[in-house]
Structures are given as structure tokens and as C-alpha cells.
Amino acid sequence: MEKPLTLVVLPECYAICRLAADAPWPAWAIGNFVSVTRTADELSVVCPQKAVPPETRCESGWRCLRVAGTLDFATVGIVASLTTPLAEAGISVFVLSTYDSDYLMVREQVFERACQVLRSRGHVI
């Protein structure tokens, strides 16, 4: 992927939560951007941090960038074009993909730096 991407900043701060694998679907996992994934080992929830009950095991303080537009499944290298420069800059990421797009999450305290790194590689935010 050599073409620069346009990224849209989601307005809220998010939390990444871990529940037991057999936990019920959390009624509190609501908002404009929510992801719930069940595996044999866990129920992972990403949602606005303000929605998370205080007793929930989670990492809060994440900002999110969405790749603008609808992505074709045949397109190669989208996530790599975002994560490689951030990895080179020592910035940790959490990535989610949906049918239409990819989402890149970075800690709030390094968000501006992450945006600078991505802009330096030609991406538009």
C-alpha cells in the first residue's frame, strides 16, 4: 500500500476491556463505536470509556482513527502502512477491522505524536 490514507478521528476516548470467556454480552457496551469479540479465552469489549462500569477490568485512555471510506478486501497493506511507522516510532497500537474499514487505536498520551508520525508518511488526518 503506497497510496496515502485519509483517517478520521473518532471524538471520544475508549476503553479496551477483558471479561471472562463465558460472560454475558455486556449491556453497558453502547456507543457509536463498539466492538465485542468472544474467543475461547475471553470476551473483549471496546467502547467509550465513560460507559464502562468501574469494577470492569480494562485499559482506558485510547483514541481512535478510522480509515475513511469503504475498503476492498483485495487491498493489501492498509494496516501495515499505519502500524509500521508507528512501530518504528515506538508507539503501541490496538487495531480493529470491520467489514467496511480498519480502526487504529493509540494511547491518548501519544495520540498527537502518532498523528504527526502518520502525517509524515503522507497520511491525511
Task: Write the SSE topology.
Blueprint: E1 7-9, E2 14-19, E3 35-38, E4 43-48, E5 58-67, H1 78-88, E6 94-97, E7 102-107, H2 111-120
Antiparallel strand pairs: 1-5, 2-4, 2-5, 3-4, 5-7, 6-7
Under CATH at level 1, the class stands as Alpha Beta
The proportion of residues in beta strands is 25-35%
CATH topology label: VC0802-like
Number of strands: 7
Flag low-confidence runs.
none
- Mean pLDDT metric: 94
Question: Could you characterize what this model shows?
Answer:
It is a single chain. With 125 residues, the chain is of the alpha+beta class. The chain has a single domain (7-120), classed as VC0802-like, CATH 3.30.2130.10. Helices cover 17% and strands 31% of the residues. It contains two helices and seven strands. Strand 3 (35-38) and strand 4 (43-48) form a beta hairpin.
In short:
This protein has 125 residues and is of the alpha+beta class. It has helices at residues 78-88, 111-120, and strands at residues 7-9, 14-19, 35-38, 43-48, 58-67, 94-97, 102-107. The protein contains two helices and seven strands, in the order E-E-E-E-E-H-E-E-H.
